[in-house]
Amino acid sequence: MATKSLKARQDSLAITNKQLEILNGGIFADGELPYFKDKIATIGQYPLRPKKLEILQINVGYMCNQVCEHCHVDAGPDRKEIMTRETMSQCLDIIRNTGAHTLDLTGGAPEMNPDFRWFVEEAAKAGITDFIVRSNLTIIRANKKYYDLPEFFKKHNVHVISSMPHYTRGKTDKQRGDGVFDKSIKALQELNAVGYGMPDSDLRLDLVYNPSGAYLPGDQMALERDFKKALDEDFNIQFHNLFAITNLPIARFLDYLIASENYEDYMYALVEAYNPAAVENVMCTNTISISWDGWIYDCDFNQMLDLKVASKVKHIKDYNEDLLNNRNIIISQHCYGCTAGAGSSCQGTVA
Amino acid sequence: MANPYYDAADLRKFGKITEWSEEIGTKFFEYYGKVFEEGALSAREKSLIALAVAHVVKCPYCIDAYTKDGLEKGITKEEMMEAVHAGAAIESGATLVHGVQMMNKYNKLSM
């Protein structure tokens, strides 16, 4: 289990160009597998274009209390990139005027940003009604100052989407670190206690499942059924939906794939599972991603590869939604991760 | 020297068998896909049966495929190993039950 980010380890993969070199080279450069752009060109989807903007996803910083092996953000306690209140204020201007209906806060652990609560309160005042916070769960138990997060989420009717790699301790801790499973269970029970995730509750609690290794997620509904049964029977925990998310070959997951000699097989599996029906609804067609320092990206993955939007508007200081919506989405071979099988997005499957 | 009989990368080429006999190859893969769909048995249960059989028929490709399939379906390593034991128990039982034949023959031939 890693304890430091690639960046802190000064690993060559911390350099985004190095990752892009790998994604564009090797089995793709020598023609063994087709480039993503050629694949989607066959169904008339190249260049990939945005549809109506629905979700603003704001990454409020890469700092996290965990160092998960698969993390595409390369997040961790040693990451100091945190959104300032000034940048948040610029985001609030956008929130007041956007056509998007959903604000999706992510990180790192978004709750670790010292201005996180202020931002949520201000965004609520700005009229956001559909609020998502992507919580890693353990943060709720990490320190006393976070113990009241379930109440805070409830007060603002935040939709909580939490990572939970498996309903068994072994698999969870292997991916996310020792003790993560027990803390996550405790956090889920606390969320349940204030009403989150209960069958008829409006307080939405969804879980995110992503594989702990070099394989694709299975059927989302079957996994949801297994998670619900196990968490209910073993811990009396309730939640609403399970989102099965495919790991994209970026940052620490890419590092893992290469180190474990699974990279080629994994890319083969992604390309083999390519589903043209999933291309239609990939999340970059209805979402934009904003980084801690205000740059704009087609998705959180492109953010981590530092692939800024192909638009005159690249930073929130110049934000113009109409201009931004008239852009081509930047793609590379990591995009196969969102079109494999039933597709994958921050809201789970798409096809 | 690399083993010339089994190459893990050949599993990816399995679908190519249809190229030399399209109709029955295609029918086989249709049947195969149908078998593993959710039915009276769940896809999860069928995956474990497939894993056990893969071991009994000692097919390295099938073992790779159904270990991965099990992981995708959230099957734990303990469940996988129990499935392998179930296959192994039937296989060893199948050997041992012939011991009765040996006993019959022994008794028939002995005074």
Question: What does this 3D model show about the protein?
Answer:
With 351 residues, chain A is α/β, with parallel strands linked by helices. In chain A, 36% of the residues lie in helices and 10% in strands. Chain A is built from 15 helices and eight strands. With 111 residues, chain B is mainly alpha-helical. Chain B has one domain: AhpD-like, CATH 1.20.1290.10. Chain B has helices at 22-35, 43-56, 60-72, 77-96, 98-109. In chain B, helix 2 packs antiparallel against helix 3 (60-72) and helix 2 crosses helix 4. The A-B interface holds A 166-168, 170-171, 209, 211, 213, 215-219, 222-223, 226-227, 268, 272 and B 12, 38, 42-44, 68-69, 71-74, 76.
For the record, give the distance between the C-alpha atoms at the N and C termini of chain A, rounded to a whole number.
Answer: 34 Å
Count of DSSP H/I helices of chain B: 5
CATH architecture title of chain A: Alpha-Beta Barrel
> What would you say the CATH architecture of chain B is?
Up-down Bundle
Total of helices of chain A: 15
**Which spans of chain A have pLDDT < 50 for at least 5 consecutive residues?**
none
Count of DSSP strands of chain A: 8
Q: Tell me, what's the shape of chain B?
A: extended
Domain module count of chain A: 1
Assembly classification? heterodimer
CATH superfamily of chain B, called what?
A: AhpD-like
Q: Helix fraction of chain B?
A: 55-70%
Shape of chain A: globular
The rounded Rg of chain A comes to 19 Å
SSE order of chain A, one letter for each helix or strand: HHHEHEHEHHEHHEHEHHHEEHH
By CATH, the topology of chain B is AhpD-like
